[in-house]
Specification:
Elements lengths: L71 E5 L4 H12 L3 E8 L2 H4 L10 H13 L4 E5 L1 H17 L6 H17 L7 E3 L5 E3 L11 E3 L9 H4 L4 H4 L2 E2 L7 H10 L21 H8 L5 E5 L5 E5 L21 E6 L4 E5 L9 E11 L11 E4 L7 E9 L5 E11 L7 E6 L2 E10 L10 H7 L32
Parallel strand pairs: 1-2, 1-4, 2-3, 4-7, 8-11
Antiparallel strand pairs: 5-6, 6-17, 8-9, 10-11, 12-15, 12-17, 13-14, 13-16, 14-15, 16-17
Helix pairs in contact: 1-8, 4-5
């Protein structure tokens, strides 16, 4: 049906898009201070910094490889609390640390959105944290790498109606991809960050054994989902000091260390966007194109939208339709039509079977046990029991047919499905399609209207009837009117 307008992915297509015209973007990569371009914002010093040594309970160092000889560690800092505490824990464990701040083109390309540089505050906090313990700080410019390996792919996916996950790509291709390649000649033993995950490395003469990615102690903050597409070679070089510590205790450690950013709020933005609103990013790089919104069950013309790429399956916010809640249930990419429904939670609309491509297994090979696994289809503490059936597509790529133990309402093509055996993350892949290989049941009238060449003949949107109460209980399949 509508899926026919979208080619199912079995591997990552990296369509390289032209870089946006700007005189600000620098094609520059520098790890040494003398070559770093001058900042266009003045970094103001932070006062009241403490460098007094603190005694830390050894339990907090258990994910810092404290029993190893002093290691040379490259620590990624963002200016936030988590990465700052990670640095201090590694320093307390006796390791030799060098901090790195990754500077990407988005932060300059959008600088006119704010009265001051968006990265200025991050840099001030990062420098202040390093100054407390005399850790050297380097600024790394990954402008071209970021556009080529992440942003271009994200834009292309949205243009094709899929919903990519920027954070997974950022970790795989930039933080632990391009950055690792860049510092490869500096002989670091490990690279560290403030992620909530745990890497178990094999000691001694068993170095041929794979390193293991495990859930963090804080299951709510756990970020193994975002790390599930790493390779074994990447995993072997990583340390995550916060993997053994709950979030609330990380905040307390920030106070013990007297960090200058101890009261700073956690970032909630998409990895590469920072303070930029997602809608602003989409509008700038894809543009807008007016389309229509149709009710999936009736074909009624309900309103207009700015472009199907602004909407994801399951989205509720931003539709601006009365009588809701309304949910995006399907998109016609070819005709720029968004289908919505108030019956999104009906039992007959839920599915538990979908296909996953672009598979990557952290051990380097497919798992031998595929019938008693757990699965995450989005970031968060929730898991499904699942089983896999392995297939090969027409291009010779491995495909997994995933069957969940329970129905899930919000499966979206382009998102990642991560797989687990107990507490161990074993790998992940990209969701190719959902709804048991069928689209949401869009009626024939809606499909006919969507294919109309001249949609101006539709006239004005219909007057939406307000339903006072919508039942979401699994025991009731009907819309309930009060």
């Amino acid at each position: 049906m509508l899926r026919a307008t979208m080619a199912a992915l079995s591997h990552f297509p990296l369509t390289l898009l032209p870089r946006p015209p700007t005189t600000i973007i620098k094609t520059l990569f520098s790890l040494s201070r003398p070559k770093t371009p001058p900042l266009s914002c003045t970094l103001r010093p932070l006062s009241s910094l403490s460098s007094n040594p603190k005694t830390i309970d050894p339990k907090y160092l258990s994910c810092c490889l404290p029993n190893k000889k002093p290691l040379k560690v490259a620590v990624l800092l963002s200016g936030g609390v988590d990465s700052s505490v990670a640095l201090r824990l590694l320093h307390a464990a006796g390791h030799s640390c060098t901090a790195f701040y990754l500077k990407i083109w988005f932060q300059e390309d959008f600088e006119n959105f704010w009265s001051e540089c968006p990265w200025e505050e991050d840099m001030r906090y990062t420098k202040a944290v390093c100054d407390q313990v005399d850790v050297p700080l380097e600024v790394v410019h990954l402008t071209d790498e970021y556009w080529t390996n992440v942003v271009s792919y994200i834009i292309d996916e949205y243009r094709h109606g899929r919903t990519p996950n920027p954070d997974v790509l950022c970790n795989t291709r930039i933080k632990f991809g391009a950055f690792m390649d860049a510092v490869g000649g500096m002989k670091f033993d490990f690279v560290a960050s403030g992620h909530y995950a745990r890497v178990v490395h094999v000691d001694g003469d068993k170095k041929d054994k794979p390193s293991i990615l495990e859930l963090s102690k804080d299951i709510v903050k756990d970020q193994t989902y975002f790390l599930s597409h790493l390779s074994q070679s990447q995993l072997k070089r990583l340390i995550f000091p916060l993997g053994c510590i709950p979030k609330e205790e990380v905040r307390r450690l920030a106070q013990i260390f007297d960090l200058p950013n101890q009261d700073r709020k956690d970032s909630q933005g998409i990895c590469f966007l920072g303070k930029i609103k997602f809608s602003e990013f989409v509008a700038r790089h894809i543009g807008e194109a007016e389309g229509i919104i149709l009710e999936a069950e009736t074909g009624d013309f309900l309103g207009k939208h700015r472009g199907f790429w602004f909407y994801t399956i399951g989205q509720r916010q931003g539709l601006r339709l009365p009588g809701g809640p309304w949910y995006v249930v399907e998109k016609d990419v070819k005709n720029n039509v968004v289908f919505v429904s108030r019956n999104y939670f009906s039992l007959d609309k839920r599915r538990r079977l979908f296909r996953v491509g672009s598979l990557k297994w952290l051990s380097g090979s497919s798992p031998s046990q595929i019938n008693q696994l757990q699965c995450k289809v989005r970031h968060g503490p929730g898991f499904y029991d699942c089983s896999l059936a392995m297939e090969v597509d027409g291009d010779g790529h491995e495909i997994a047919v995933v069957k969940l133990s329970k129905d899930d309402q919000g499966l979206a093509a382009g998102q990642f499905a991560a797989f687990y055996q107990d507490r161990t993350c074993i790998g992940s892949g990209v969701i190719l399609e959902s709804w048991d290989d069928q689209g949401f049941p869009v009626c024939s009238r809606a499909l006919e209207i969507a294919s109309m060449e001249d949609k101006s003949k539709l006239g004005n949107p219909v007057k939406i009837k307000v339903i006072q109460e919508i039942c979401h209980e699994e025991s009731d399949r009907r819309l309930c009117q009060a």
